[in-house]
Automatic annotation (TrEMBL):
UniProt keywords, alphabetically: Membrane, Transmembrane, Transmembrane helix
Organism: Clostridium tanneri
Name this polypeptide is given: Type II secretion system protein
Keyword Membrane: yes
Transmembrane segments: 15-38
Superkingdom, natural source: Bacteria
Amino acid sequence: MNFIKENIRGNTTKGFILVEIMLVFSLIGILVSMEIIVVSKYMRVHRQEIERSRESFYVNEALMLIEYHVNSAEYVEVEENKIKLKRFNESGYDYIRKDRQSDIIISYGSEYYSTTNNILKKTKDFKVEKAGGVIYISIEMDKGRIYRRCLGLERLKVRATS
């Protein structure tokens, strides 16, 4: 019996054996890989949300700029997805339209004049309709999201003369 006790006591070692260390490292590896997967999914969703938010901001800014130009014009016509704006100083017309590069632009003086300003880039579709005193604007972006806005037209019938 003493022989068995001595053999048992003699075989005990202090410290860790190789199997235990490998088991700990494999568990740590599994936990770290799960964290990496979760973080990468979160980063992808975060990037998509930033793109969506940025696109929404730019489209809303473009719609506000279009509304400003419509409200500051003397007369507004809508024809073939273009907005024709007559200036108050009677020096001509400005046009808000989509160009060949799929950008929404404002063209000063003539419909296809070289002096233009970009309002919004990378659009897929730009539709404008007029019904009564309201202009309906629909902008579809490259990613497929559609933004809509309606603008009310208020015009004075008679200008005040002094």
